Amino acid sequence: MSVFLPRAAVAAVALSVLALAGCETPAGKVDILQSSSTSVVAGSTYAWAPVTSATQRSADPRIANDIINQRIQSAVDSALAAKGYRRVSSPSQATLLVSYYVGLEARSEIQSNNMGPPPVAACGFRGCVGGWGFYGAPMLDVETINYTQGTMIVDLVDRASGQLAWRATSNRRVDSSDADQAALNAVAADMVKTLPGGAQ
Predict the structure, then answer these.
(1) Reduced to 3 DSSP states, what percent helix, strand and coil does the chain have, rounded to the nearest 5?
(2) Backbone angles phi, psi at 183, to 5 degrees
(3) Which CATH code is given to the segment(s) 25-191?
(4) How many Cα atoms occupy the beta-carbon half-sphere of 86 within 13 Å?
(5) Which among 65, 127, 160, 165 is most buried, taking Cβ atoms within 10 Å?
């Protein structure tokens, strides 16, 4: 049996779906991990942790380069400054050491779209004509969608103890437009929202 919805109902459903899609934050799904023994104090000083071969930020050549590195560091610096944290040049003078990691993963999903019920048949003196599909059943459009899932991690380590104090992990679909400075600034600001500090 086919179900026909009034156009107003279809429009309302479409608008609600668009509203939900618009609710996604710049950083997508953000998970926060906070140490129960090592706290992050608002207004602390920080420095970027030295990068060693054991702590490579990314092995993916699309993002393992100086341009992306500078953009991400600038985005994190701006986000931390907005929360009241102060960057110092020497790690030995900092309360916190900051580092980040980025990963990209190719994924795909199967999506099926219901193309809707058959159109209303036109009826006249000689019977009804219209409809499409077998026995008037709705048609399905099935496609494979390939996308890139991006993960970004920002760590704050207590320099004195060497213990991880706070970690934010962002997971979302990404494309080439996410590598520009404005997009990275928005992601970093979203990731540090729950960090103790000044303006939220």
Answers:
(1) 30, 35, 40
(2) -65, -45
(3) 3.30.160
(4) 8
(5) 165
Rounded to two decimals, the pTM is 0.70
Q: Is 109 exposed, middle or buried (0-12, 13-18, 19+ CB in 10 A)?
A: exposed
Q: Are 39 and 173 in contact (CB under 8 A)?
A: no
Kindly state the greatest CA–CA separation across the chain.
91
Query: DSSP 3-state assignment of 12?
Result: helix
Q: What is the CA radius of gyration of the chain?
A: 25
pLDDT value of residue 167: 97
Residue 62: the pLDDT is 81
- The pLDDT tens digits for 142-193 are 888 888 899 999 999 999 999 999 999 999 998 888 889 999 999 999 999 9
Angle at 73 between CA 160 and CA 89, to 5 degrees: 45
Give the contacts of 132 (CB within 8 A, at least 6 positions apart): 118, 119, 139
Q: Are 40 and 195 in contact (CB under 8 A)?
A: yes
